[in-house]
Structures are given as C-alpha cells and as structure tokens.
Amino acid sequence: TDEALASFQRAVALLEGFAGPGDEVLARAHIGAGDALDQMGRYEEAVEEYRSAERIASVRADASPEDLGALNDVSRAPDRLAHQLRMVGRAAEAEEYRERAAQTVAMLLESDPDNLDLQRDAAVQRFRQGLALLQSDAETALGHFEWFRTISSRLRAARPDSAVYRRDLSIAYERIGDALLALGRTPEALEAYESGWDVAEDLLAAAPEDVSGLGNVGSKACHVGEVRVELGDLDGAHEPFARYLDVSRRRAEID
C-alpha cells in the first residue's frame, strides 16, 4: 500500500504541472491516492484527496455535461468522500456527499440502464449507507444489504468469471448476517453466513494461494462456527472451526 500511495502521489505531482482544469487522469490519481490512504487508516488525508478529485471531476462534468465518463467520476469521488467523512465522525457532511453521489448515479443509470459497472456503483452506495446505519437501525441497514446482494447476484450471473462481483456477493451475505444477528434473527443470520462462506470458498478455489482469499474464507468459516455454537450446534461448529485453522496455517506458510 505504501508503494501504491507513492505511485499515485508521483502521478499527481507530475500531472499538476501541465494538466488542464478537469483533467480525468488527475482526478483518478487523486482517487487512487485516497484509496491507498483509506487502506492505511489515514482517513483525514484521504478526505483531502477525494475533495481534490471531486473538484476536478465537477469542472469536467460542467464543461461536458453529456460526457457519461465525467459524470461517473463525479459520482465516485463524493461517494468515497462520504465514506471517509463517516470514518472521521462527520456524519452530516457525509450524508450531503452521499446524496450527491446517489443523484449522479441515478442520472447515469437512466441514460445507460444496462451498464453493469454503474449498477455496481449504485449498489456499493446503498451498501455503504447500510454500514452507516447498522448500529442504529439494523432493519433499514438489512434492506440496503439485501439490495446489494440482489445486484451482486445479478452481476455475478452476467460475469461469472469476475472475482470482484463474487467478492461483492460474499461481503453482501456477511453483512446481511450481521444485520440479522443484530435483530435477533439468529437462524437466518446463520444461513446468510453459510452462503457467504460458500462464495468465499468458490473464490479461493480459483486462486488457492491468495492470502486475502484465505483470510476471507477463514473469517467466514469462523462466523459460521460462532453462530452454530450460539444455536447449540456444537457438533456442527467443528467443521467451520477446523476450516478456519486450516486456512490460518496455509496463510502462515505463504507469509
């Protein structure tokens, strides 16, 4: 991640010397730097990168309102900005940017309703809204997560070889399980966690030495084991806990 951040920052420094207002590549370099900072937990710095990206994308969209690519950048920058603002406790400001991003994505989908990437952008926005609500309003969060699952399932069917869409589906099931657990609907939560585990295993089968894939399978299996214990199924908990230990050993060997 340090290397990725340095690469994006070099790109920003170079482009700022000659790029014109609304430069698409510069906006995306700022987004890349923001993403890297987000992964490093440097949220305030990520906010500033996303602000820069949003300003540049807005200039481009104002100059070419018919440019769908420009509108797409305008939706992505404020969506990421909203996420970061929530991370630093600025919920009201985050909601303003989330609404701006949602309006732009709605315009894009109206112009190009079959665009899979736009459908994913809209679904991710709903997913992030669900994350923001999970602790205070699990019922509403559940609705957002279920919508994300529906879109992710549709995208996976359209592009079965896409690891991104399969990973989205695995995450959707996990968060549905979290919301159901918060609502006291433990048997349904178990079903969701089991579905997420199945998808994670499918992803790992395609890349068995992938460390992040091993970690994903391990966390999903552990969730299943914990909920089975909570429901009194001690025998059933043995398999997922054994799988967790297995993938943990494999990760240690690869590292």
Produce the secondary structure layout.
Blueprint: H1 2-15, H2 24-39, H3 43-63, H4 68-87, H5 91-111, H6 116-133, H7 138-158, H8 163-182, H9 186-206, H10 211-230, H11 234-254
Helix pairs in contact: 1-2, 2-3, 2-4, 3-4, 4-5, 4-6, 5-6, 6-7, 7-8, 8-9, 9-10, 10-11
Could you characterize what this model shows?
With about 260 residues, this protein is mostly helical. Helix content is about 85%, strand content about 0%. Helix 4 runs parallel beside helix 6 (about 115-135).
Brief description of this entry?
The chain is mainly alpha-helical and 255 residues long.
Strand content: under 5%
Number of strands: 0
Shape: globular
Q: Which structural class do you get from the secondary structure elements?
A: mainly alpha
Proportion of helical residues = over 70%
Which regions contain 5 or more consecutive residues with pLDDT less than 50? none
Mean pLDDT: 86
Query: CA-to-CA gap between the ends?
Result: 17 Å
- The secondary-structure element order is HHHHHHHHHHH
- Largest sheet features: none
